[in-house]
Amino acid sequence: MAKKFYVVWQGREPGIYSDWASCKQQVDKFAGARYKSFPTQAEAMAAFGKQPRAVRSSTSANKTSAKRTTTSKGSLTSEQVHALTAEIKIFTDGGCDPNPGKAGSGLALYRNNQLNELWYGLYDPMGTNNTAELNALNQALILAEKALAQATTVAIFCDSKYSIQCITQWAVTWQKNGWKKAGGEIKNLALIQQMFTRYQALKSQVVIHHVNGHVGIEGNELADRMSILAVDTKVVDFCLYQPPYDLAALLALRAG
């Protein structure tokens, strides 16, 4: 029997489960349970951030809205990020001060929901925020490629809808049109082409999720601080920030 992955949107503990027994524990005899099976983990991860349509009473809807943090459509909350079952979770961010101006990229990598690595660099004195965001996402794809080669599950979280759409949607059309778009040039084209090639090879195994910036998602906040650290230190290479990690001190650094 083919392996399935189960998404629980509403249950005792929302998340993604790799076997029916675990899923059943979350939904069995749970009033208003919402769940569904998917043939691949990538599809399950993509679906997890999207609530299925369901008929609810006005009372239950009010209770739900009172308990949950509101985000833009398709963006994951901190609770949803934590509940995803990927072993490796990579958060990316880019900063630019001003825009255009001094730019840098940052990344925070978690293993089993514990901070494992911080990265910063790719300083560009004449950069843009979009370029910095793309550079950070590209580094996440490079790390994901290495992790997947070790049979490790990976999820990527990015607060730049521009970067996500560039490589998951727009690049498909641009490639078909000979890497041209109606109405003007494709900015950051060389970088986007490189990322698109890498993403095409990984997309069946990894999902890039959107999260809102500066809403208290720790990984996103740390990636942000790393991007500004890159700006402040003018580090050109993409470097590993050396542990130990004092989270309070890191989060107190200048934000982007």
Automatic annotation (TrEMBL):
One function term, GO molecular function aspect: nucleic acid binding
UniProt entry keywords in alphabetical sequence: Endonuclease, Hydrolase, Magnesium, Metal-binding, Nuclease
Catalytic activity of the protein: Endonucleolytic cleavage to 5'-phosphomonoester
Entry-linked Gene3D superfamilies: Ribonuclease H-like superfamily/Ribonuclease H, Ribonuclease H1, N-terminal domain
Cofactor(s) required, per the database record: Mg(2+)
EC number, as in UniProt: 3.1.26.4
Annotated spans, Disordered: 49-76
Compositional bias of kind Polar residues: 56-76
InterPro entries: Ribosomal_bL9/RNase_H1_N, RNase_H, RNase_H1_euk, RNase_H1_N, RNase_H1_N_sf, RNaseH-like_sf, RNaseH_domain, RNaseH_sf
Domain RNase H type-1 residue range list: 84-232
Enzyme class name: hydrolase
Superkingdom assignment: Bacteria
GO biological process: DNA replication, removal of RNA primer
Role: Endonuclease that specifically degrades the RNA of RNA-DNA hybrids.
Family label: Belongs to the RNase H family.
Subunit structure: Monomer.
Protein name according to UniProt: Ribonuclease H
